[in-house]
Design goal:
Layout lengths: L2 H9 L20 E4 L5 E8 L5 E7 L5 E7 L12 E4 L5 E8 L5 E7 L7 E7 L12 E4 L5 E8 L5 E7 L7 E7 L12 E4 L5 E8 L5 E7 L5 E7 L12 E2 L7 E8 L5 E7 L4 E6 L12 E2 L7 E8 L5 E7 L9 E7 L12 E4 L5 E8 L5 E7 L9 E7 L12 E4 L5 E8 L5 E10 L1 E9 L10 E9 L2 E8 L6 E9 L13 E7 L6 E6 L8 E9 L7 E7 L11 E2 L11 E7 L3 E9 L4 E10 L2 E7 L12 E9 L2 E9 L2
Antiparallel strand pairs: 1-32, 2-3, 3-4, 4-5, 6-7, 7-8, 8-9, 10-11, 11-12, 12-13, 14-15, 15-16, 16-17, 18-19, 19-20, 20-21, 22-23, 23-24, 24-25, 26-27, 27-28, 28-29, 30-31, 31-32, 33-34, 34-37, 35-36, 35-38, 38-39, 40-41, 41-44, 42-43, 42-45, 45-46
Length: 661
């Protein structure tokens, strides 16, 4: 529809009942704002809300350094306060948060905390689906032992709650590894201040943790008790350790080993990946018995091309693992490209001897992040310097299927190519084969937090949405939306569902199509007026983007959904009969604001009942009935003054009419 039509719609909005829907525009080109308040927002982490959206946490320096969080729905709209909700606002510094879904639309969050003013401790909080804290204000203490505890990592416990491990300086001489198990109520279940996982001489750092599927965990770390090696341990649910005290060596190598990352193997064991001082990446697998399955040294991920760094790993969903890493194999010195590899439980390399390239554009890639595509493949995002002359650092993303094929554009789809810097992307699944990516962004001067969703087919047409609103108007419910760009051959499908508030139970919404609007490449503003909306009813509207025409070849994506909106309930109305005076018949109109038992009766001037025209449950909405001047016995009544009375629920209205014979 035209812009003029949109302006007309706005002109008839009923001001006292305007209900803006989606004041947050949601996904927009180059990212939706998560938090843009003055001050630096960084150290971002993300997890799914298990409902197609995400929960994002960050360190926020709008005052000192505290922990904040925001929840985005699947359309990218902020569900909590615009500037985020305060997770911890204690004095001094809180930083390096980690986050996990709690299974109920909320999240568990842990961080290192300097509130004591002497050293860092470990604290945690649980927030519900509305962003409200469920535990003690500013969090519960996980460990406040002597000296400092830093760099917490966490994983889910199979019966609720989570497990957390960290680097611990309580010995006063080196960093050790400690861990704790916390239930869903915020109670620590093991020894106060955690159990010792490794207390060997030298520093133990770069800790990672994954669940053992039995409410315990596998914990791995980089260990400097001699040469730098990778060690691991299994902790039972009661805090006891399964292997040799201070852990077992995972890779037998003459070279130093760095950067361990872990992933479950689907049968109660764990994969561990690392790179050595010769810049070769290796993978190992071991189970509850602590026996190494890929030989003493592990399986090398690239036979012919060294120069691997900073590998990441995730499970593939069927017992194998997918690994991604930076490699400068192309020129051997300066440029990091991006490669991936997949292995099965026997250590067989499934994507060639040296992995497959994801991005070899000619610039460097950094800050990798992975999530599953739900179909045995992965979605991977990274910071990219290909346009460093104009935008410094941008963000790109790629999907790799289970066979190692690139599903999206060569060298990746751009997620954000806004001017200035976009860095440190973190990612979670959108539950539908795509991903939600969050990052720190300097487009506004200091660092802010932005996010973007990419769909399973690599499309993010939803990012063309600049804003929308749904409001009640005189003639119905009006919906308006503005696009920041248009693709050719696009239509908009409008669907409507009664809000769950219309039902006795909160069941799923049933959407029905009510209109199709063909888009114009030169038109960015659209509107639709639902004249069939009934007063007193609440509706949810969905606008979908349809590509490729309608029918079996169409591709459909949700552009946005509104919050419940509807026309306000009008008062019970009884119109003047027409014609009046009348002979021999007249019409009586009325309006019922809600469904009710309705009666319409005729009386003479003495109050004697003449005729009942309506006696039924009906509404809401308009109605009309005809009276033919007869009484209950079917006899014509004489000329004179008569009264008609409408009763609906507890309300009654009466009017006068004249019959002239």
């Amino acid at each position: 529809m035209s812009t003029a039509r949109a302006l007309f719609l706005l002109s008839i909005i009923i001001a006292i009942v305007v209900i803006p829907s989606g004041a947050d525009a949601g996904w927009t080109e180059n990212g939706a704002p998560v938090c843009t308040i003055s001050g630096v927002q960084d150290q971002i982490k993300i997890c799914s809300d298990d409902m197609g959206g995400s929960i994002i946490v960050w360190r926020d320096r709008r005052s000192t350094a505290n922990i904040y969080a925001q929840r985005l729905d699947q359309m990218g709209r902020r569900l909590w306060a615009e500037a985020g909700v305060l997770v911890c606002g204690a004095t001094d510094v809180q930083e390096w948060p980690e986050v996990l879904p709690d299974g109920s639309g909320g999240a568990y969050i842990v961080w290192q905390d300097f509130r004591g003013g002497m050293d860092f401790d470990i604290y945690a909080q649980r927030i519900d689906s509305d962003g409200a804290p469920l535990w003690t204000v500013d969090g519960v203490v996980i460990c406040d032992a002597a000296d400092f505890q830093i760099s917490p990592v966490m994983c889910s416990a199979s019966v609720g709650g989570f497990l957390v491990a960290w680097e611990d300086g309580r010995s006063g001489t080196s960093l050790d590894v400690y861990a704790q198990r916390v239930d869903s109520g915020g109670t620590s279940l093991l020894t106060a201040d955690g159990v010792a996982i490794c207390g060997a001489t030298g520093d133990q750092t770069e800790v990672d943790i994954v669940s053992d599927d039995n409410s315990g965990a596998f914990i791995v770390w980089q260990d400097q008790r001699g040469d730098t090696r990778i060690y691991g341990q299994r902790m039972y649910s009661n805090g006891a350790i399964a292997f040799t005290a201070d852990g077992i060596g995972i890779f037998d190598s003459t070279y130093d080993q760095y950067g361990p990352k872990a992933a479950i193997d689907g049968v109660g064991g764990v994969y561990v990946v690392m790179y050595d001082s010769m810049y070769r990446a290796y993978i190992q697998r071991f189970g509850v018995d602590g026996v190494m399955r890929f030989g003493a040294s592990g399986a090398i991920l690239g036979y012919n091309s060294p120069y691997y760094a900073l590998p990441l790993i995730m499970e593939d969903g069927i017992g194998g693992a997918i690994i991604a890493w930076q490699s400068w194999r192309t020129d051997g010195t300066t440029r990091y490209d991006l490669y991936v590899q997949r292995v099965n439980r026997t250590g067989t390399l499934l994507w060639g001897l040296d992995g497959i390239p994801v991005c070899t554009y000619g610039a460097s890639v950094y800050n990798l992040s992975l999530t599953s595509d739900g179909q045995r493949g992965l979605v991977i995002s990274w910071r990219d310097t290909r346009d460093i002359a104009t935008t410094v650092n941008d963000l790109y993303v790629q999907r790799v299927d289970s066979l190692g094929s690139m599903r999206w554009a060569l060298n990746g789809e751009p997620i954000c190519i806004q001017e200035d810097n976009q860095t440190i992307p973190v990612m979670t699944t959108d539950g539908s084969g795509g991903a939600i990516i969050a990052w720190q962004d300097s487009r506004n001067g200091d660092l802010d937090t932005y996010a973007m969703r990419i769909l399973s087919d690599g499309d993010y047409i939803a990012t063309a949405l600049a804003g929308f609103i749904a409001v009640p108007a005189v003639e119905g419910v009006g919906i308006e939306w503005t696009m920041s760009r248009m693709d050719p051959g696009v239509s908009f499908r409008i669907l409507r569902a009664l809000s769950v508030t219309e039902y006795q139970d909160a069941g799923s919404l049933f959407f029905e199509e009510i209109a199709i609007i063909t888009a114009d490449m030169d038109e960015m503003e659209y509107s639709f007026l639902d004249t069939d909306a009934e007063s007193g009813r609440n509706y949810v509207y969905r606008v979908e983007v349809v590509m490729g025409g309608t029918g079996p070849d169409e591709e459909t994506h949700i552009l946005f959904e509104t919050e419940p909106v509807g026309l306000p309930s009008a008062a019970l109305t009884l119109g003047q009969n027409v014609p009046n005076p009348f002979n021999p018949v007249t019409r009586i109109s009325f309006y019922l604001p809600s469904r009710a038992q309705a009666r319409l009766d005729i009386f003479d001037v003495s109050g004697r009942h003449i005729m009942r025209l309506i006696d039924e449950t009906r509404g809401p909405g308009e109605g009309e009935v005809v009276w033919n001047g007869m009484n209950t016995g079917g006899e014509m009544v004489s000329s004179g003054i008569y009264f008609y009375r409408l009763s609906a629920g507890k309300e009654t209205l009466t009017r006068k009419m004249i019959l002239l014979r």
